[in-house]
Amino acid sequence: MSQNASPTDLREIGLKVTAPRMKVLEFFQENANSHFSAEEVYMALVKDNSDIGLATVYRVLTQFEQAGILSST
Is residue 37 part of a domain? Predict the structure, then answer.
């Protein structure tokens, strides 16, 4: 995870700043030294009362990986 990723960074790599992207970005910034599956991210966001779907989480994670913001193992 790029520790300092921001809305400006999202725009610079060609991604719109959306609520779901910001929620996922904030989640990883708050949990920078941990590894999570898409399902774990989804469950944590739902528990935090975020209105987000599992498919959206998968899509955002894929976009972040392609942009170099996150890496998968």
Answer: yes
Domain total in the chain: 1
The pTM is what?
0.87
Q: Is residue 28 part of a domain?
A: yes
**Ranges of H-type helices in 4-70:** 7-12, 19-30, 38-47, 54-67
Q: What is the CATH number of the domain that holds 34?
A: 1.10.10.10
Q: Are 25 and 65 in contact (CB under 8 A)?
A: no
In a 13 Å sphere around the CA of 33, the CA atoms on its Cβ side amount to 0
40 in Cβ contact with 29 (< 8 Å): no
Helix (H) or strand (E) holding 32: none
Residue among 54, 37, 59 nearest 28 (CA)? 37
Q: Per-residue pLDDT for 62 more than 70?
A: yes
Place of tokens 């989480």: 57
